[in-house]
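Hey team,

Filing this mostly as a record. A colleague (T.K.) asked me to run one chain through the structure pipeline before their review meeting, and I want the input and output archived in the tracker in case anyone asks later how it was produced. No errors, nothing strange. Just documentation.

Input sequence:
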Amino acid sequence: MGQFASGVIPAAVTLLTGIVLLLAWFVARRHAARQIVGRAQDDAARLLRDAEARQKELLLATREESHALRQKAAAEARQTREQAAEEERALAGRMRTQEDRERALADRASAAAQKDQELGRREESLREREATASARAERYEQLGAERQRELQRVSGMTADEAKDALLRQIESDARRDAANLVKRLEHEARESAAEKARQIITQAIQRSAAEHAIEATVSVVDLPSDDLKGRIIGREGRNIRALENATGVELIVDDTPGAIILSSFDAYRRTVAKQAIEQLVADGRIHPARIEEVVEKVTSELDESTRKEGEAAGFELGLHDMHPEIYRMMGRLKFRTSYGQNVLAHSKEVAYLAGVMAREVGLDAHVCIRAAFVHDIGKAMDRDLDGTHLQLGIAFLRQHGESDAVVDAMAAHHMDIDWPSLEAMIVQAADAVSAARPGARRDILESYVKRLEQLEGIADSFKGVNKAFALQAGREIRIMVESGQVSDEEAVWLSKDIAKRIENELEYPGQIKVTVIRETRAIDFAR
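Output structure:
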């Protein structure tokens, strides 16, 4: 039994191998046959096109040649008749006898007969060529019909099927052209939308009159007398060390009369330290135990104050139903700065701008205001917890019951994710406008002033410019020129030259309008 199985298995393997090879050969042959059919279709189509083109060319050439020969024969016959008439008139004047006239007429008749024979030969040759052309045309028609039948046989398509394929191709081309038209219309719509967006943003900025102040990183505590500096330092510096350990702020006690300086990047800690030192100085008892007690009391009072600050900011925006912890964290942003800009003031301004823009475009203004108000809430806790302020803010808002619409709109304000809603776009735009407002941030203010100076400097460098003024936050520059040095025509070219140089040398958002003003004054005196 084992020998039988050992004999059957190789036979089965051999049979399966043969079947697989046969299938592979069949597939390969089928693929090759398809390629041959495809090439035959292409060759047949090409031959058919060549035959049709050759047929048209030959018929056209034959007709043109026939027409030319007929015109030439008619012209020669007309010329012969004119010459004969002219000769007859000339002979009538010169000949005096009947014999001369008869001889001249005989010569003229002989010449006319020769011309007629020549014309007959040419007409015969023309008929032969027309017959040859007709035969060739019939041959090309037969050849075209044969090629068409061969093409139908090879391609498997009838003339109607080919016509349907052509119509489908035309329809596809029409759809592509329509798509291009839609794309162009969309581009025009985007341009008009950009103009509308600029109007909405400008209106929102004008209606939001927020004040900006650059925050510092140091605070000054005034002392009634310099004797208190020694008491604050304490024996061997124990009091100042206790203050620094309890508040996390560095105390700088120098020769500044009647004051000590608190240094820290955390405004909350500086505020706690300042209020604690002021209470210690007023109480007069300054020692480590008392310092810890006062710092703890000031911290508790400041936490309650920050909660009220956040609650007042929310009520000012019409947000009355937020979780108390959200109000408390928003109040902490009063002591947080970003590029020197107070984050709580920035959040309120972003909420104002988002509300105005949302109402202008018909979106949910409440969602936009709410999301814009809390968009930077994570900055109140990112110094104490791991994670970005965006991640911490999203988790905090979800934990305290904010809706998905508000959280999604807040989560996209740095464009870290795809736009989840139109309200998210409004929040991002309002955040960008608030941050980019001149004077809001230290670095933006410096770059803004520098760009205005460069803008006016470029205009002043041109010959004939009297004064240059940058207007509308650097979006327009007006140039006064000397009328005696710059003519009306030169003023046009001057505006173009200044605009081109601004494009090459400056980096700026949007566009800058260049206006050249030339004034001519006529002055006289009445005496």
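Quick notes for T.K.: Residues 211-215 have pLDDT under 50 and may be disordered. The chain is about 70% helix and 5% strand.
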